[in-house]
Amino acid sequence: MDTPLSIVIVERDPERAQVIVEGLRAIGAPQIAVFPDGPGLARRIAERNPDLVLIDIASPSRDVIEELTLASSPMERPVAMFVDRSDGMLTQAAIEAGVSAYVVDGLRPERIKPILDAAIARFRMVQKMRAELIATRRALEERKVIDRAKGLLMAARGIDEDAAYALMRKTAMAQGRKIAEVAQALVTAAELLK
Prior knowledge:
single chain; Rossmann fold; 7 helices
């Protein structure tokens, strides 16, 4: 953790929470809030808007994992979950819910920093993959629209594919727009004229 993080700890036992707070303070975490799980947790976490959520539960159930991960918005920030015991199904449920680090055998102060670093790294990696997937899907959709617009131009003007693409590119440059935008306008106009 190179920069100071705002951290929310979800722990209902004040003594366990204090051990975690002390461990975090020892590694330089300046902004720490402790919330018990239960009603209103999602609202409290959203109001605090932490950089990271650390969840410490002795023995979680699938319902608890789903509730806590939804409350801590694992798609928006890293979530590290520490449990005293677990099984394969609970581990799978936690990972599917978006938990960045799922650590069995409880939380010990000397393990906090490396685990939080790993949770942050994994979260960033998953976020990067999500962004790449979104960009790839967008590019594929744009490609489909461009191909459809080329087909419309080829049929309407009696030109080949290269000439249709060149015409769209020339129009896009003249209008200061992307080729995909020109293609979408052409496809939309063709649909309106049917």
